[in-house]
Design a protein that fits this description.
The complex is a heterodimer. About 1% of the residues of chain A have low confidence. Chain A has 23 helices and 18 strands. By secondary structure, chain A is α+β, with helices and mostly antiparallel strands. In chain A, β6 and β7 form a beta hairpin. In chain A, α5 crosses α6 and α20 packs across α23. The longest helix of chain A has 50 residues. Chain B has a single domain, classed as Rossmann fold. Chain B has a 5-stranded parallel beta sheet, sandwiched between helices. The mean pLDDT of chain B is 87. The chains are: A alpha+beta, B alpha/beta. The interface between A and B is medium-sized, with 24 and 20 residues.
Chain lengths: 794, 130
Amino acid sequence: MKPLTFSRRRLSWAAGIFGVGAVYYFLGKFGLSLAFINSSATAVWPPTGFSLAMLLIFGRRLWPGILVAAFWVNWTTAGNLATSLGIAAGNTLEAVVGAYLVSRYAGGRRVFERSQDILRFAFLAGMVSTAISATCGVTALTLAGYSEPSGYGAVWFTWWLGDMASDFIVAPLFLIWGGRSLRRPDPREAAEALALILAIFAVGQLVFGGWIPTPRGYPLKFLCIPFLLWAAFRFGPRGASGAMLAISILAVHGAVRGGPFVVEDPHYSLLLLQGYLVVVALAMLMLASMIAERKRVEKEILELSARKGAILDASLDCVISMDSEGKILDFNPAAEKTLGYSRQEALGRELAGLLIPPGLRQAHRWGLGRYLDTGRSEIFGKRLEFEALRRDGSTFPVELVVNVIHIDCRPIFTGYLRDISERKRAEERFRLVVEAAPMGMVMVDREGKMVLVNSQTEKLFGYTREELLGRPVEMLVPEHFREKHPADRAGFFAAPSLRAMGTGRDLHGLRKDGGEFPVEIGLNPVQTAEGPAVMASVSDITERKLSEEALRVANRQLKELVAVKDEFVANVSHEFRTPLTAIREGVSLVLDGVLGPVTGEQDDFLRTVNGSVDRLHELINNILDLSKMEAGRFDLVRQRLEIRTVVDAQLSNYRAILGRRTVRLHIPEGLEVYADADSLIKILSNLLSNAVKFTPEEGDIVIRAEERVEDRGVWAAVTVGDDGVGIAAEDLPKLFQRFSQVGTKHAPGTGLGLALVKQLVERHGGRITVDSAPGAGSRFTFTLPLAAPGAPHD
Amino acid sequence: MTDKKPRILLVDDEPNIIKVVGRRLEAEGFEVIPAMDGESAFEKARSGKPDLVILDLMLPGLNGYEVCRLLKAGAGTWNIPVIMLTARVQESDEARGFECGTDAYIGKPFRARELLDKIRQLLPKGSTQA
């Protein structure tokens, strides 16, 4: 790629050189055709301006084109090789040096956009670089004898001015018109341009073309000035340079044939023409660029103020400016909306009288006066809170920031103002909630200062609000904990979150009177206008601590009481047994005939006594069992038990009291439960004893056992049924409560049996239910865990 | 001495028990030696060499457990069967009784049949009244 790029650059360089050279040649020929003292002296030497413009636009590397073309022009016009070379070298150097100086010091190809650059251009290109060309050329001509040494100064001066005029007339043309692309003119502009062109042509002909014969020296030439101004004002640098070119062509053309500059001495005529062109061209360029600059600045200002206006219009804050007399200068839509005045009404009015409540006006005026006198004020750039006045006379809280700028030593104040009524109301609500809270609420800032406390806090700690606000919160913390507190506080602010303070620690508060009390503290981070803070809620838990302690004591006493009761029950049951033994043994002795024959009625009564002794015995056993069970001192020793075997053993004990009652057994052989033997015996004997009690002398008792599938698996279900009096539905729920015997007018029981049975069954994970109705007998069914088949027997 | 009645030392601090149980035992053909406290019970067991001892546990002085231990440790008394007959019916009491060497444990109140069965079971064959 590189060789290609290189050759392409080479190619465009060569083309540039050729093009610049060709144009230069023809411009030179054209320039020479306008010469009128000798063949080399022209009023304007067009190639100078052209070559400068080309080197500025395309770069100084095109200089060879200029050298060759300049040489060729001179060689083919007059003179010999030496003069032609000298002149060509001068022309080339002039262009290169001029282009260098302008690029370096006068903005380069954009030189005509700024008036300062134009002045530099006039000096560097117009005066310095042109001197090189004039010196080289005139020296060469003089040495070769084409020019008289005595006329060196005059020729040099003419040459110099001709090149200068070219830099002022021809160079701008290329640099200005070759700059930014042209905007398509609208019809009115086009018409005006046409009119201008015609007018320029007309006046040019009038002044320089000799349409109106005038006495010599009559200053008709100034007639051109208004038209050039027209071009400059209306069409900017482009118009000015174009018009100037046209005037120059007409002037030079006219001068060749006579015209206002032609006087006796042709040199003098030339000088007048050149001077005129140079001065006018420079003036017009300056003027046009200044006009363009002004237009640019105007546009910028317009844009700037439009942008600023948009910002002010869209602002949610009121933006109000005020001058040093206190009069309103600016009033944005937010201000209109918030304060109730329209912009028109507000502008020019005194701000204090309009927007500040009467009570604050004097302070405002005093502050303004002091600032104007001394330049001192504390308010600028700070967030302030004031009351403001609406048109309807109501006041409202505002937040305000004021700044000041100085324009021509006059201050202009701008206030940015925000309605904070809503926030104030929220703050007030917050304050009321805090005040109404049933616990002490203390808001603490980062430095540990209390910034808000409620009345409950005053009550808890015994301080007044005034004594607390602004003071360190550590004053409420007991001495022995105070040292650690600031570090804990810093820890909270490092990771603020809702939490309980000192979880697991006993916290205490310190009252004003030095007393301490147990507290519970919740911490809650809050954001305030002044920065992060923490809201601590403090509850006095003295009461709770006391009641906790009371509860502990009561519990201990209760346990002691229960132990005493258990002890008592054990002792009572023991004390009962000995007399019971004596009674039963005594009665049995008689009944057994040991003490002699017993009559039928005696036998009957003695048996009744023994039955009662048995129930009493049962009662004592049940009381003892229940008491043990409640105290948790009743251990189950589980083992495989065949139901049939256990039932048979129990029945043999009951043979005597069964009398003529029939017991039907429906118990499969080998059905086993996994249970505590003592428990099973107690369950069966209690149910059996109940059944016997409630079954008439010749009734039936049924004991049935089977496997039963429940949602909890397979259980052994044992039912003891009688055809006794039955139980009323309303009594069923009470059946398993202690001492709640129901419907037992006929046959008394202990009232503890079923309660004990229920506990024993449930200790095994089983359930007990009853199915009964008055006159239809009762069926008690309990379930116990089935022994796993194949498990070893104990 | 097969014609001689078997002798039973009946120890209980409750006179009513001595009275009714003693009468029952006599009716069953036993000779009853009563004792109402631990020390006298132990003394009578050593001197009288009964065929069986029925022992209450809650006794003034030496209690039943201690008496049982002494008997089972004594040279001439270790082979006398002991039946504890007591109102203490907790499993732990019973266990303690067997630890002390008793041969049977019967809770009060008891049935006469139960006691007599146990006595006949424990008495040496030769001393049993048919």
